[in-house]
Each structure stands twice: as C-alpha cells, then as structure tokens.
Amino acid sequence: MNRSMLKRVSEHEWVIAPTGPMRVPGIVYASASLIDDMDDKVFEQLCNVAALPGIVDAAYAMPDAHWGYGFPIGGVGAFDADAGGVISAGGVGFDISCGVRTLTTGVSAERVRTVQKRLAQALFDTIPAGVGSKGHISLKPAEMDAMLIGGAAWAIECGWGELRDLERIEEQGRMAGARPEDVSDKAKSRQKREMGTLGSGNHYLEVQEVDAIFDEAAAEAFGIRQGDAVLSIHCGSRGLGHQIGTEFLREMAVHAQDHGIDLPDRELACAPIRSALGQSYLGAMRAGINCAMANRQIITHLTREAVHSVLPEAELALLYDISHNTCKEEDHTVEGQAKRLFVHRKGATRAFGPGHPDIPDDFRAVGQPVLIGGSMGTASYILAGTGRGEARGFSSACHGAGRRMSRHAAIRKWKARQITDELTDRGITVMGASGRGIAEEAPGAYKDVTQVIEATHAAGLARKVARLRPIVCIKG
Description:
- The protein has a single domain (3-81, 98-475), classed as tRNA-splicing ligase RtcB.
- Helices cover 31% and strands 26% of the residues.
- It has 13 helices and 19 strands.
- Strands 7, 8, 9, 11, 15, 16, 18 and 19 form an 8-stranded mixed β-sheet that branches. It has a 7-stranded mixed β-sheet with strand order 1-2-3-4-5-13-12, sandwiched between helices. A two-stranded antiparallel ribbon has the order 6-10.
- The longest helix has 35 residues, at 276-310.
- The two termini are 36 Å apart.
C-alpha cells in the first residue's frame, strides 16, 4: 500500500478511493503527523475491511489507528444484515469488550497525595493483576452461565456494587442476546478464577487528577471538577474473551468459502450475520461483553473497599463505563435512510451525541462520556460525543494513544526500574505485577495521546471535556 493513495479532503480527514475489491472508501481521521506515524499496514487493512460483504458507507480508522489482527486497531465498520453483511471476530478483537470505567471520588488530588503510597499498596494488594492472575472468586458452571447472561447486573445481585451503578454503564450493564451455550467449556474454564482481575498488557487501574477542564457544562453534568481525584479501570473479558475470539476466528476461516466469502486476509475471517455461525458468534460475543462488564463491576467493588480503607471519606460514584472492542446492533442514518446496522468497533469507542436515547438522562443534553486512556504516566482524557460524529464514523471515537512500538521492541529499549524511577520523580507511584509488563507499556512505546485527542476533537468525532493526570498506576 502506498500512502500516495490517501487523498486529503480536510485538515483531519483522508480518503482512500475504492479500488479493486473495495466496496466502499476508506476514511482516516488524523493529523498529518499522526498519518506519518501510522504503519502502511493500517491502510492496507482498512482497504481489506472495505472489501467485506455488506459493508455500509465507509471503513473508518480513528486517529489512534495502528496495525492489528485483520482489522486495524482503531477501526470501525458497519454492516447491513439485509445486504448480506458479515460479522467478523477479527473486527471485535480478542479482548472482547475491553473498556474503561471511571469513578469520581469527591476528594481532592492533594488529599490523595497525603496517602499516595498507602493507597497504591492497598489497591495493589486488593486487585489481582498480571498474566494469568487469579482472584478469590471461583464460579461453578451455573454461576458462570448466570454471569454470562447477567453481566454487571449479575455482579451487583451477588453483592459486588451498587444498584445505581447500572444507570452509568452502556446497555445498563447487561448485553441482551448473550448465549452461554455458544461459549465453549474451555473458554468458561479459563474464566473460572479470573473474575475481578485486571490481567496484563495495557490494562491498568489509575488514580488520576483532573488537571484541566475544557467544557464546563459537560464537566458539571459528568460530576468532575478541576483538582479532584478520579479513578479509572481499564480491562476486559480476560481469558474467556480471548478463547472466544481464537475459536471463532478459526471456524470462520474454515467456513468462509462455504458462505461464498473470498477473504482478502485470512485474519478477517467472518460469517454472514444471519448464518448459524454468525448468530453463534454474536451470542458468544455478547456473553463476552457481559463477562467484561461483570469483571469491571467486581473490580469496582474491590476498589471501593481498598480506597475506603485509606480514604474513608471518598464517595466513589460511577461516572461511566464504556467498551471499545465490540460489535453492536444500532440504528444509524445512511444516505438519508434509517438502517439497523452491526457496528464493529475495534479499539474504537462508541460516542453518541446529545439527545441520543441510549445514554443516561443526566448526560442527554451534553452527550455520552467518552473515556480515553493514555499510556502509563501520560494524560488520559474524558470527551463527550457530538452530533457530527453520527455522520463521521457511526458515532465512534478513538480509544487511547495507540501503540507506535511493539512490546518486544519496548522491552529491548526500556527496563522497568528505569521507568518506575522516572515516574516516581514526576510524583507518580507505579506498582506492577511484573517488570516485563511495565517495560512493555513504557510511555515512549505509544503515540502522543494529546495529538490523538486534538485530532479527534478537531475532526468532530468527540469533543474535549477534561484532562486527567496519573497519581497512582497499578499495572499487570
């Protein structure tokens, strides 16, 4: 793929015209410097997505886009089941429903700093993190199926959380249409002891300071004030989601020809939405979404316990919980016509604008909170969905900074001690389950999250509300 095929149509929008098997154009939202930072593989993968059956409007890449498995990470594609549209496990990703949950604390960042090390230790001791981490919860088969159907609502019924939390979670904490019977015994076995655990990779739990407000009205609606401390949790469906992705990608690749699908890339394995295989994956994926929401709900409960042991005055109210590795059935307008579409967001965050019926009443006037995690030691952001976003990527936005260096390259370049010392000098306490995990997630391995956010804001995908700076970071 040659970048000369990109046509710049505005400061932050680039188009790849349909060629060869492409059914729709590819559209990239990014600044020129972010485009220069993207591997050519991003554009190649975007063209491949644009060639899939039943795709509508365009294949989109967000400003944090980078090479992924089949779909680029930061990729968005919507498919029409009535036009032979497909569902792709690669378009959702292995960590189904990985997402971010942010809680307000009602205490100042300065107050947090007076107990910073104690708080970090309490969180690290309470929330299991790291590769293969296990929690104290062990689910029996019937409990596993109940969790896969009930999501965060199930977790709250079991005593992990508060009923009011459900109002601030997409789908009210429970994804309809989950089919535990389509989740393999192996996937369930992998998840048996992993509920309430962070996992590894780019997952984290951070205590953060609201250090800048850009939109006073939205910040007030979201309950955030400059100088306050908030807490963010970033994790997903752990081993269960990975196993679902692995198994269905394999099965979709094997049966693609049976469905008359000529795959431009085997990693884009997919199945018609209305096929038995497509419906089976949807049922399993929705169960994976519920697993992730239940997992973040349990972690929230554990976090509240840990924080209250050090800061008993903290309130820890849920601001919002939103995923960025999903396929959702949604209503959108395409060329003036209302359509029911299956929107894949892989490393992209749903960003409904003001007035949308699927966001909480408290946020209806300002738009859905869009929670964007930065790299370890750098800023994170809270954005809000915009009305313009509907026509600029099916109400989707970026999900983070986006990697610019592989994990192996990061390990070769940085050591954990070097990173923790540098962050300590900046007033950030980092605690990780392994030195390797910290080195893999070195801030320098990622793009500049501020550039990504500025491009997202300028492109009209979502607007800036607040910037968050880390105080404590717990890593896997």
